[in-house]
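Entry 12.
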Amino acid sequence: MKETTNRNAKEALAITTILTMFVAGFEVFAAFGSYRSGMNIFDIASYATANMNAYCLVLILANIILLPFAVLLYRQNGISLKKEIAEKKTLGRDILLGLAALAVTLLISLAYVFIFNAGRTELAFVDTDTSLGTTIMKIIALVFVSGICKEIYFRGFAKSFVGSVLGETEALMLANVMFAMLDWYNFGFSFFAGLFWIWSYKKSGHLISPMIAHGGANLVSVIYLIVICGGIR
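Predicted 3D structure (tokens):
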């Protein structure tokens, strides 16, 4: 039994690590490949997602390619991923918890917008691409694929598999650190937001809560850009 538990934890961590390193590697390459003299770290980090269509494609491919391994891991251990995500009898409460975590996430994002604006210079990348194609790519990659798949990897795996070895809270915190590493370019925003997504997950017991908070926060960011840029072009 212990051997199976350890093997499951290792497989879960391996999948999460592969996703983290692959996506973070792309971001580092994109960011530092755009370096110009005079840039500070905030400027450099702004280029991690400058080619948004390529970034979204990387996110989609990485998450979807790993998803069958995640589904198989749950199935091999007799765990219903569908029930891990949501159950009808608690759905209303779980949605409310997700919305509460989303509200806090949006408040945190306001503080980070101020930090980014204060730290970046005129050399930083400013996203103004609200074309229909890019907007659709963002919604698919950031709202649905990231909002659903990344919660399975970074929250679901921690609770269902790694927690059996390290302890649930310790496993969730370790996964949250990895989550922040994947999104290193936002300087800890993902880590602090992730803490509230963990809270919603532990309170609800279902992944639908952090999925709503995660996907919802990304959707708001897409809508915000559209609004400040004057609509879809």
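Annotation: The radius of gyration is 18 Å. Residues 2-228 form one domain.
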